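Sharing a chain and its predicted structure for anyone who wants a worked example. Both blocks are below, sequence first, tokens second.
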Amino acid sequence: MKICLSVCLIFFGFESCAQQMDERLFYLEKAEKYRRMKTAGTVLSVAGTIALIVVAAKINSEDYYYLHSEEDDIALALTSIAGVSAVGAGIPLWIVGGYNQNKYEQKLKNVSVGMRITSQSKGLALTYRF
């Protein structure tokens, strides 16, 4: 009987460790995915903001009204469209990536499987936090 109980405990221990490692790997992959998304959103937002600042500085310069051509107007229009698009795409990526990265990192910290032996109750208890 003791051997059977020992084998069962060992089996459950290995199974719970394997399941815990799979979940940890899953949460780690998700956290890394959303970290990359947050970084991409940050880069897009900063690049778009810089493009819009360059366009605004070029338009507000004194030489623009006297010495500009049609090519300059097209270049400024395309740069401003690219800047607005980059900021528009970057901000949601930044927000969603940051929120989900924190969520999966928190889940990664909270996943644990352990056996608890208490003096109040007779027997073993298997606990799983999620």
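Comments welcome. The beta strands are 112-116, 125-129.
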